[in-house]
Specification:
alpha/beta; Rossmann fold; two-stranded antiparallel sheet; 12 helices; 37% helix
Amino acid sequence: MPTPLHYVDTQVDTHADNGDDNSKGIPLVVIHGLFGNADNWRSHVKAWQDVRRVIAVDLRNHGRSPHLAGMGYAEQAEDVVALLDRLGIEQAHLLGHSMGGKVVISVARQYPQRVASLIVADIAPQAYGHDHDTVFAALRRVAKGKPANRREADELLAEHVDERPVRLFLATNLERAEEGGLTLRLGLDEIEADYEAIMGAPAGRSPYHGPTLVLRGAHSHYVADAALPALREVLPKAQIKTLDAGHWLHAEQPEAFREAVDNFLAELGPRGV
C-alpha cells in the first residue's frame, strides 16, 4: 500500500485571498534528499509559486509523513504517484535532490506518462557506497540526549559532525515534543534498517526518454564525469549543467539553481507551463 505523503501545495497555501489562480498549467513537484523535508525548499517554492503551482513533498519517514518499513525506490515512486492521484494531477514536472533524485528517476522510468519533465539535482542513477555513518551517529545522539533547545541540539550533533552547515541542515528535523524539549521528526529506525536500498540504484529498467535536466555541483563527487555515460543510458535526453557548488547546490547557489530550472522549463515551451 502506498504511503499517504505529507505535502505543501501552493494552490492551497498561497493567493487564497486575492483571487489569483496558480493551479493552471503543469505543476512542479519538488522532492528532498535523505534526512531532508519539504521545508528545506521554502525559499524556492516562494519564488516559483508566482508562475506555477508547486508541491513540496515529505517522503516516507521524513518530515510529517508516516513512519513505516521500506525505503526501496519502487515503493517511494509508488508513494509519489499515489499523491499525484490524490491531487488529481495527470502529469507533473518532477524535481528531486540526491535521494529524491533517485525517487523521481524511478517515477519517470516506471510511470513515464505521469512525467512532463525531469530535473535531477546532484545524483546519478547508480548505487553509492556508505557515507552517512557520522550522520546516523549524530542523530542517534540527539534522540538519546533529548535536548531542551536548539543550542543543546547543536552541541550534541557537533560530537559527531564538525561541519556547521551540515548540522544546521540536520537541525531542520527537530520539532517541539509534547512533553517539552526537542525531538526528531524522522523515522530513523526505518531509514537505517533499509539504508542499503537508499544507497542502491533507482527502480525501473527502461530509460526515460522525456526532457531531462541534471544539475551537478562542481565540488561534489556524486555526478562525476565518469558517471555520465551510464547516466545517459538511463536519461538519454539529459542536459548536464554544472554549478559552482557542492552536493547541496540548491542551498549553496540558490539563484543559479532557480535560474537553471526556470530556463529549462521555459525551453520546453507549452510543456513547461
